[in-house]
């Protein structure tokens, strides 16, 4: 075959020479345009016309060579060649998510948008990939090997921290729904099965847990709204699912034999008194020294120049690949979505994965509620001030206001232009009419009326969500860490007011306000906050009867958050950070310090709760909205997913790591537009094109939105400004459910029975309205290739 190729090239050369000779005898000017120009020895370079002519001839010769080389089946595969996905793309296993040194370059889709014919390139399929994805493995440039090894070490570090903390899918006993029995640790991620895993050949692991009981039980598969707080099954064969929450119907388990205590490093440890070494912890948690050493490793990688250049090129390539795919296949996607009955954007499940409970209503809703209370309950005693009790009417008289005077402008709770880069002004927007006493009356759970008004307001918002049926949320509610009884007060508020909804789950946010508490004398050291936040949780895990309401409430709590203004300057006063019991300075610890102690105590708590068969928690902090990019590196190691993350646009290597590990980003463009980044500069559309696991969230509807459906408002603005097609909106909605902490039984109903599998196997267009066509699933799974 090489001889034939050489002969063909010789024939081409002879023809070209003969043609040039004929041209020379007829027209000298045409000879110059057809023959390769000679380089002027005095100039040392081609002029413009000569270079264009040479380029034209080289293109012709290259086309001839490609034609002759096409017959050679054993030729090396070029970096841009199209992969052979095999005849059955619906069982496509995406290759290794981590970086493989022998297969780092990601092949592209064919230019025509169709799958290649599997019979065209049989010789490029390595023997060890037959029956799998059948992708060629191009050679690796030697200078890239250190980059790939460094990135792979970062990926392994995250795997270690996720494994220790039990944040991977399948670890939480709530995931056991009678059919799903968990995932092996080596193939599990926080959001599903690893794309490279050979999951089809594995038997499901055995589970020691029984089916998780969701109480009150969720609605039947098909139901419709009929009146207030009434759910009627559409199918008469289904039993009535409406079940009122009753605390007496909740099961309270017995106490456990294990004990616990906080060690000198500020981390709660679990001990087994019956073991040979009762003073040794049962579970190994990374020390703070190990954490900061690992953090420095990640920071060194993402600050390395060649690594940044490589990641930048890869991110641009991924975004361009998605753009090309969209141009080729958007009409086919739309046609496929139209062929699915009943399902469209309005009736796919969407979860607001980042919304604060105290601002979960819009301004008009809060205004109507305040007016109704002033008219119907003016004599309610609502606050104790200056040594006496005050009724609601007396409070408004002291403000010289009546119900008629109130308006949206009077409330002044919307974050307009005066809040941009002014987080201090934004925090003041939580006070209606600028008065902290009104916030205490209407928006606090622990006040003189035991949070009765806020409970009524919460039920009204829950009713709106249940009427919409397809919108769900995860409200973030605060535990401050100032007092030890905060958990019991919050749990009693939830249980006694029966604040349970099929559409709502809860996250606990811990404000980073150490400096404020230290100044007013609420605490002495940082260890006081650690004790106040985590000790009640370890107590209720050991003996649920010690805090029965808290045990019941924790079944609806899915995780933790830490929140504050990230733009605050962080000064390092210590070469080596002291342990929490020694941190008595007036300055607050840095973000990375807060994150470690949240993570370490959650990890220890999760291991014990898993052993007991109780629900476990994930860590989903506010991160990357402003401040130092080091915050994002800390979250990369410790967090299940994050809120915001807009600073990833400035750190390409870290953005690439977030992409490879599919770490969830709950992004709120309207919130960012008011506080830190204008809407048109938001990186959400770029992140989505690259393939990051992004979803839309509202953050604070009270400050940023106008309608009673703030989540749809967020989707609407994004669709108009970023020109998102219906398929992209459906994928954003699907991502929001995957990032959420709803139980596996509910997720399987919303997304499909095998939603956690990669590629086409995990996509059900009848559930999520996301196209299941082979090109779509390939572009979604192959973008995760390396």
UniProtKB/TrEMBL annotation:
EC number(s) on file: 3.5.4.6
Keyword Amino-acid biosynthesis tagged: no
GO molecular function, one term: metal ion binding
Pathway assigned to this chain's UniProt record: Purine metabolism; IMP biosynthesis via salvage pathway; IMP from AMP: step 1/1
PROSITE patterns: A_DEAMINASE
Annotated GO CC locations: cytosol
Enzyme type, top EC level: hydrolase
Compositional bias of kind Basic and acidic residues: 28-47, 59-68
Highest taxon, organism lineage: Eukaryota
Key words of the record: Hydrolase, Metal-binding, Nucleotide metabolism, Zinc
Pfam family of the protein (one): AMP_deaminase
An example Gene Ontology biological process: AMP metabolic process
Coiled-coil ranges per UniProt: none
Cofactor(s) the record lists: Zn(2+)
SUPFAM superfamilies: Metallo-dependent hydrolases (SSF51556)
Region feature (Disordered): 1-47, 59-84
Ranges of compositional bias, category Polar residues: 16-27
Family classification: Belongs to the metallo-dependent hydrolases superfamily. Adenosine and AMP deaminases family.
Protein name listed in UniProt: AMP deaminase
């Amino acid at each position: 075959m090489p001889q034939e190729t050489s002969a063909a090239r010789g024939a081409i050369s002879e023809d070209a020479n003969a043609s040039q000779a004929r041209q020379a005898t007829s027209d000298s000017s045409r000879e110059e345009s057809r023959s390769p120009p000679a380089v002027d020895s005095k100039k040392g370079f081609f002029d413009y016309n000569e270079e264009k002519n040479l380029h034209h001839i080289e293109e012709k010769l290259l086309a001839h060579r490609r034609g002759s080389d096409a017959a050679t089946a054993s030729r090396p595969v070029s970096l841009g060649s199209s992969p052979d996905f095999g005849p059955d793309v619906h069982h496509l296993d995406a290759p290794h998510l981590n970086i493989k040194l022998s297969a780092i370059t990601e092949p592209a889709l064919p230019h025509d948008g169709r799958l290649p014919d599997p019979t065209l390139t049989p010789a490029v399929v390595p023997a060890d990939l037959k029956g799998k994805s059948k992708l060629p493995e191009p050679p690796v440039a030697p200078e890239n090997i250190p980059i790939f090894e460094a990135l792979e070490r970062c990926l392994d570090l995250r795997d270690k921290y996720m494994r220790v903390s039990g944040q991977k899918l399948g670890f939480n006993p709530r995931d056991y729904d009678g059919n799903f029995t968990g995932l092996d640790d080596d193939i599990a991620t926080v959001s599903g099965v690893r794309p490279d895993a050979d999951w089809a050949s594995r038997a499901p692991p055995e589970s020691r847990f029984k089916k998780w009981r969701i109480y009150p039980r969720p609605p039947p598969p098909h139901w419709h709204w009929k009146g207030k707080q009434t759910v009627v099954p559409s199918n008469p064969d289904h039993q009535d699912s409406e079940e009122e929450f009753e605390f007496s119907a909740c099961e309270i388990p017995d106490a456990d034999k294990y004990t616990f205590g906080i060690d000198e490093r500020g981390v709660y440890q679990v001990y087994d008194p019956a073991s040979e070494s009762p003073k040794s912890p049962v579970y190994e948690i990374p020390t703070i020294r190990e954490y900061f050493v690992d953090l420095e490793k990640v920071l060194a990688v993402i600050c390395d120049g060649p690594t940044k250049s490589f990641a930048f090129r890869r991110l641009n390539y991924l975004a361009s690949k998605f753009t090309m795919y969209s141009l080729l296949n958007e009409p086919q996607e739309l046609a496929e979505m139209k062929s699915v009955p009943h399902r469209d954007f309005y009736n796919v499940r969407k979860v607001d994965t980042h919304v604060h409970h105290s601002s979960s209503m819009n301004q008009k809703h809060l205004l109507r509620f305040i007016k109704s209370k002033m008219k119907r309950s003016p004599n309610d005693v609502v606050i104790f001030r200056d040594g006496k009790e005050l009724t609601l009417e007396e409070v408004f008289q002291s403000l010289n206001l009546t119900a008629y005077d109130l308006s949206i402008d009077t409330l002044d709770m919307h974050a307009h232009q005066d809040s941009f880069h002014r987080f201090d002004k934004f925090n003041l927007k939580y006070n209606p009419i600028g008065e902290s006493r009104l916030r205490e009356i209407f928006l606090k759970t622990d006040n003189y009326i035991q949070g009765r008004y806020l409970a009524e307001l919460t039920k009204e918002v829950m009713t709106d969500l249940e009427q919409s049926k397809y919108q769900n949320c995860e409200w973030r509610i605060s535990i401050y860490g100032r007092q030890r009884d905060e958990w019991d007060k919050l749990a009693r508020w939830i249980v006694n007011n029966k604040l349970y909804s099929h559409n709502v789950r809860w996250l606990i946010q811990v404000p980073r306000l150490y400096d404020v508490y230290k100044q007013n004398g609420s605490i002495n050291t940082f260890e006081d906050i650690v004790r106040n936040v985590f000790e009640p949780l370890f107590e209720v895990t050991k003996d649920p009867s010690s805090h029965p309401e808290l045990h019941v409430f924790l079944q609806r709590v899915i995780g933790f958050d830490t929140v504050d203004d990230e733009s605050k300057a962080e000064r390092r006063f210590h070469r080596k950070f002291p342990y929490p019991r020694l941190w008595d300075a007036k300055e607050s610890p840095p973000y990375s310090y807060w994150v470690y102690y949240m993570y370490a105590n959650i990890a220890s708590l999760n291991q014990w709760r898993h052993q007991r068969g109780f629900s476990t928690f994930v860590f989903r902090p506010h991160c990357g909205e402003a401040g130092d990019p080091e915050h994002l590196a800390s979250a990369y190691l410790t967090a299940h997913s994050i809120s915001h993350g807009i600073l990833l646009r400035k750190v390409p290597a870290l953005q690439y790591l977030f992409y490879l590990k599919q770490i969830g980003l709950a992004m709120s463009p309207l919130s960012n537009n008011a506080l830190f980044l204008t809407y048109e500069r938001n990186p959400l559309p770029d992140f989505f094109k690259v393939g990051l696991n992004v979803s839309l969230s509202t953050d604070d509807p009270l400050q940023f939105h106008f309608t009673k459906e703030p989540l749809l408002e967020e989707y609407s603005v994004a669709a108009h400004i970023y020109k998102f097609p219906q398929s992209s909106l459906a994928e954003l909605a699907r991502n929001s459910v995957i990032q959420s902490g709803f139980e596996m039984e509910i997720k399987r109903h919303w997304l499909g029975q095998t939603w956690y599998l990669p590629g086409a196997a995990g996509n059900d267009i009848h559930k999520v309205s996301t196209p299941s066509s082979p090109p779509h699933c390939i572009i979604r799974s192959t973008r995760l290739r390396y």
